[in-house]
Design a protein that fits this description.
Elements (H helix, E strand, L loop, with lengths): L14 H13 L16 H5 L6 H13 L17 H21 L2 H30 L8
């Protein structure tokens, strides 16, 4: 006797229930708890309705807004942006021959600009030399004999 196997959803929920769960999942930003607002008097309507904000609420909101300003941004941390192996191989000669020596004699910004532009100039020079060589010494290659 052949047993008929039915497709049974392991999570017994309707499509609308799943959609609602996914909506909450996105709203909670993948957390089990809803986002928490620490802003004093977050809604404009609340701030303006009735008598408005008290002096204490106004001072608290002013301090909260001031605390939202982050100082010294953006911070560049190279370890947080690792390069893949191909980019490391490609960048190695320029880092070794231009980047490190330039850091000893110039400022960090100037050395970074030099590290960025000098290899590009070498590539443009090499490509133009290659095109010149091909045009000079391979003029009759396209002609059929």
């Amino acid at each position: 006797m052949a047993s008929s196997v039915q497709n049974i959803d392991p999570v017994m929920e309707k499509p609308w229930q799943r959609a609602k769960r996914m909506e909450l999942y996105d709203f909670y930003r993948k957390s089990a708890y809803p986002p928490m607002s620490i802003e004093p008097v977050p809604y404009e309507r609340t701030r303006l309705a009735g008598e408005g904000m008290t002096v204490e609420q106004r001072a608290l909101r002013k301090q909260w807004l001031k605390d939202q300003i982050l100082h010294h941004e953006p911070r560049h941390v190279p370890e947080l942006q690792p390069l893949n192996i191909f980019r490391r191989i490609y960048r190695f000669p320029a880092d070794l021959l231009i980047g490190k020596p330039a850091m000893m004699f110039f400022s960090k910004e100037t050395a970074a600009i030099m590290r960025y532009t000098i290899p590009k100039l070498f590539m443009v020079f090499g490509a133009s030399y290659f095109v010149w060589y091909q045009l000079k010494y391979h003029q009759n290659v396209s002609r059929l004999h």
